[in-house]
Amino acid sequence: MTHAVEIRDLHKHFGTNEVLKGIDFTVEPGQVVCVIGPSGSGKSTLLRCVNLLETPTKGKVFVNGFELTHPDADIDASRRQVGMVFQQFNLFPHLTALQNVMIAQQRVLNRSKKEAEIIARENLDKVGVADKCHEYPGKLSGGQQQRVAIARALAMNPALMLFDEPTSALDPELVGDVLAVMRKLAEEGMTMLVVTHEMGFAREVADRVVFMDGGVIVEDGTAAQVVGDPQQERTRSFLRRVLHPEG
Description:
- It is built from nine helices and ten strands.
- With about 250 residues, the protein is of the alpha/beta class.
- A six-stranded mixed sheet has the order 6-7-8-3-9-10, with helices on both faces. Strands 2-1-4-5 form a four-stranded antiparallel sheet, with helices on one face.
- The termini are far apart.
């Protein structure tokens, strides 16, 4: 069976700073893999290398068996398989929620306006903001904006969804709505690679949890193993700080 994601010996330098120091791992179709770790550990850079928002310094990245890092790869075609949701919502402020979800469908996938609107409305409904379709981002809460951003990614029919700390910019009371949408996607079998600080979500939803620190994978296993019974001291000390910040 072809891996949904396969990463081989991935390195990324920014000048003299080596942020990723030889990452190897795979994601299987339908898996939810959560990547956790302290700030600066390379989590977001790893995610951005998966759809080539950052070009790896060395190594190979495959999505559904297609090598994105091959010199002759059609990057645009392969990126269409990958949806990405960022910390900041990156919506166009001058477009309504509906238009934000339609625009890439029309420009990238060449869908008609009618088809793009039908698919946009379906996905806005799926994430629970169908009633906000004619609102501009400035009129929406952070949680609503993030759900529109998820709908926009889903409307492109990706085989893989990447989430880069999708709740970190949200007020605490809005986090649950976004996590509920992600939970639903997981139940429907969407392949997801999620950088998150939400340990409850990782415990409940992730098939696997990867702990990164210092540009390497320190621990990789089920949520019960990595979050519940970590083997490495670096993992244990990180989880102590995250799970018991008052301690």
